[in-house]
Structures are given as C-alpha cells and as structure tokens.
Amino acid sequence: MNAFRQPNFLALALRRGNFLLGGVLAGLVALLALVSLAWTPHSAYELDIANKLNPPSPTHWLGTDHFGRDVASMIMVGARNSLLVGFVAVGTGLAVGVFLGLWASARRGWVEELIMRFSDFAFAFPAILSAIMITAILGPGAVNSILAIGIFNVPVFARVTRGSANAIWAREFVLAARAAGKGHARITLEHVLPNILGVVVVQATIFFAIAILAEAALSYLGLGTQPPHPSWGRMLNEAQTFLHLSPHLVLFPGLAVVISVLGFNMLGDGLRDLLDPRLSRTRLAGYPR
Q: Do 27 and 211 touch, CB atoms closer than 8 A?
C-alpha cells in the first residue's frame, strides 16, 4: 500500500524532528521566494552608490553591498532564482530518469543493459565538473545551469527507479497481474509506479538540495545566473573583496545557502524514515524521536 495513504502517516510525521525542522526551513525559503514576487524591502536591482557597504540597519535590514543594493532584497530574489533552478533541473531529471528506469525494469535485456551502461558512463564524471564543462561549452547563464544540473540528475533517478522497480516486479501481486494478461505498460502504471513513488519523492527532495548547492557553486564561478539577476553564489563571489570591511556580505548569502540545503536534506531524510517500510514497525512501537 502506498505509504502516503497510511492513516498514521500524518501522526508519524508530526513526531519526526528532522522532518518537521526540514519542513520549516524549506518552507521559510519557499515563503521568501513567493513574497519576493510581490514585494521586497527595496529594489534588488537599484544601485545606490552613496549608501554602499552600509551595515544592517532599520532602513536596510541586512545592509547594502558595494553597489548600494539592498542585501535582504537580493537574498529574497535569489531564493526565487535558486528554487526555480532546483524545480526545473530536478523536474527534468525526474521525468527523464524515472521513465528510463521504469522502461529498463519492464523490458530488461538489452534495454536495461544500455540504460545502465549510460548511467555508469555519466557517473564516471564528477557532478560539478560535468556542470562546469557543459556551461563552459554552452556559455554561462541560468538556462544552461538548469540543463547541466538536470543532465546529471537523469542517471541518478534512472538507477534508483530501476532498482526499486525490479523489487516490485518480483512481488506476487505483479505476477498475478501478468497471469491475468496485463501488459508491461499497464503493470508499470498501475502497480510498479505507485509502489516506488515514495522512494522517488525522497530522492527528488534530497537532490533538490544538491541542485540549489550546484547552482550556487556555478554562480560563484561566474557560470550560473548572470547579472543583473541576484544569485546567492555570485553574492558570495562579489563579497570576497570586502570580507574584512563588510562581513555581512558573506554571512547572509552563506546562511541562505546553508538553510536551504539543510532544510531540504532534513526534509528528505525525514521522508525516507517515514516511507521506509522496514522501519514502520519500529516507529509504531515507539522508536525514539
């Protein structure tokens, strides 16, 4: 049975500290991104050289940068850009990777072998180096960053999906469905996909955090989101020169990256604990929270 439909899922979720804290942190980042669509304390793009490098104050809550731009506003808009990259990149990897993984598990034989060897080839290159190579070839920019991160996510989701789906194909209810004359596509959609959905969701949540970190790293290197659009990674890069003069320029963007990555990682870990069927009896018996 799908773990999301279990009647005790909500009660268990409320008793998991990592799930709750991760949800709060991720929700805070999402709230900042949503609010920035309609309102920011100041314009994130307006230059005010006369008020550059100001410390935090009632006028500028988190201070200003070397161009006089409001740091709080830039962080809010940067949250929107980071989440956008994460959603599109992980969504791309999720859609293509899950399809390939389900196809490999259903067809087996040379199809499975080809897809898995493709995954092995992709894993031979470190993620960040692969993203740097792709953005260096195609040019810097948010779109190419999304493409680079999404390409790396495809083999990850393909391998996870294939491994989980293979276990479901060996179950008795799938054998019964095959005996009843159902085809591979119908069994995949009706029986396999619903039973691996929890694993896929957990993986997507964890890789969302990795996508945010990768986008920040690419922007830090000048290969990600380009000016004038704010980016946490580029804010950290620009703040290096003024580290001793205005440490707040490093502190606040760095905290934004840490909170985002920590929040989505803890949320993924909490979901994994909740949806792992091997731990369900232990949790119900009063596993220490």
A: no
pTM, to two decimals: 0.87
| Domain 16-32+70-278 CATH superfamily | MetI-like (1.10.3720.10)
Residue 2's pLDDT is what?
53
**107-127 residue pLDDT tens:** 888 989 999 988 888 877 777
- Using CA atoms, how far residue 229 sits from 215, 222, 265, 268, in Å, is 13, 12, 26, 29
In the chain, where are the structural domains located? 16-32+70-278
* SS3 at position 64: strand
The SS3 assignment for 206 reads: helix
* Element at 257 (helix H, strand E): helix 248-275
14 vs 201: CA distance, rounded Å: 18
Contact call for residues 66 and 51 (beta carbons, < 8 A): no
Interval 35-75: pLDDT, tens: 999 999 999 999 999 999 999 999 999 999 999 999 999 99
Helix (H) or strand (E) holding 140: none
Query: Rounded to an integer, what distance in angstroms lies between the CA atom of residue 140 and that of residue 134?
Result: 9
